[in-house]
Amino acid sequence: MNISVIGAGYVGLVTGACLAEIGHHVICLDVNKEKVEMLKSGKSPIYEPGIDDLLQKTTQSGHLSFTTDYPVACEKAEVIIIAVGTPSRPDGSADLSALQDVAEKIGFHARHDGPIIVTKSTVPVGTNRKIRSWLNTHQTGKFRIASNPEFLREGSAIHDTFNGDRIVIGAEEEETAKRLEEMVAPFGVPILHTSIESAEMIKYSSNAFLATKISFINEIANLCEKLGANVEDVAKGMGMDQRIGSSFLQAGIGYGGSCFPKDTNALVQMAGEMEHDFELLESVIHVNAKQQVKLVQMAKKRFKDLKGKRAGLLGLSFKPNTDDIREAASMEMINLLLDEGVQVTVYDPVAQENVKSILGSRVIYADHCFEAIEDQEMLFIATEWEEFKVLRLKTISKLMENPILFDGRNCFSVEEAEGAAIDYYSIGRPAVIHSVLKTPHSE
């Protein structure tokens, strides 16, 4: 099948490469010329495990190509997939301006005898109806509209494409749905057919529920700290109930990234437009905002005054195996620490360049995790990279000036902390206090 993907960002690139891998002829279009040139050379502009190898394989086979030219992308396409960004506006609603621009260009350049226009971008319910009118802005065509939301996790997107829980196809016509089912059938993933509106809603509802689960266990963790319980034991007991399940019951410093924050805010906005007060989801968002700065609040309570202190921070991306720092807890923490007058040294295996583009010289960038630990008066863990989880607390203690660790992802066990000369604070578990503090240089 001849397929075009408009937008070679995270979703579009992974989607196009995976469709090419199962035998389709795919053209990915992006307006960024530098990005397209990089992709033509087989290199990905995003960090995603396995994507470079897949790009090289599919481009060399001739199944995947890249362009900045709409006529080239649209001329022979039987299916055109829209995968452009729909960022949040200040009020939480989705900005559809890029989507509208793309739809109008497709309408002008695509064949007019019935190509299927598939929306992969996350869009508010009712958007696909608008897309039909945008397609016909310049000239009328017999376009067929469908919604095919993505459920990819950053860091495991290729695996998820071939091993997903479901593929949702929302379409008006049975023929359209059947054609799209044929397109994705080689993935071997269960397929659900729905209306267009239901498909749009499934995406938002799924992310909102997962965000709710995260905020719930974090609130339980906060209560566990006050009651002397261990949230890991609580979560394990909860997760053994098949009605609940263990996924997304890991207490920490909240969710981030490009999906959960944007989609929860958009769903609240959509509810407001329908005069529905989504109190539950509003609470989820509020809880998450507090949780992201929890470690800094712990440090302020521990030290009373943070001014002039030195802190190391491990992990900048919102989760491991990605360089995405959008809505990452680390960024909230860094800004708060800087406001308190703390000298901050940061380290992340892949996300540091993205942080440099935002914070510049306001923080110190370490070349190795040990450099971010050595001689610090406090240490924060914001992302559970495997590189950090294999460290030993005794090693961390020896490197630090004052061995005080605030672990936002519960990377270490309480038992190990008890055997190390380190004050250890984690989420939803008893703090381990040794009060074996080395004398600061400043004293």
What would you note in describing this structure?
This protein is an alpha/beta fold and 443 residues long. It has three domains: 2-194, Rossmann fold, CATH 3.40.50.720; 203-290, Orthogonal Bundle (N-(1-d-carboxylethyl)-l-norvaline Dehydrogenase, domain 2); 293-425, 3-Layer(aba) Sandwich (Rossmann fold). Helix content is 44%, strand content 13%. It contains 19 helices and 14 strands. The chain has helices at 10-21, 33-40, 51-60, 70-74, 97-109, 127-135, 157-162, 174-184, 196-227, 231-239, 260-273, 279-292, 294-303, 329-339, 352-359, 369-373, 386-389, 393-399, 414-418; strands spanning 2-6, 25-29, 64-67, 79-82, 116-119, 144-147, 167-171, 191-194, 310-314, 343-347, 364-365, 378-381, 404-407, 423-425. The chain has an eight-stranded mixed sheet, sandwiched between helices. Helix 8 links the parallel strand 7 (167-171) and strand 8 (191-194). The protein is elongated, with a radius of gyration of 24 Å. InterPro entries: 6-PGluconate_DH-like_C_sf, NAD(P)-bd_dom_sf, UDP-Glc/GDP-Man, UDP-Glc/GDP-Man_DH_C, UDP-Glc/GDP-Man_DH_C_sf, UDP-Glc/GDP-Man_DH_dimer, UDP-Glc/GDP-Man_DH_N, UDPglc_DH_bac. This is UDP-glucose 6-dehydrogenase. Residues 312-414 form the UDP-glucose/GDP-mannose dehydrogenase C-terminal domain. Substrate binds at residues 151-154, 203, 248-252, 256, 319.
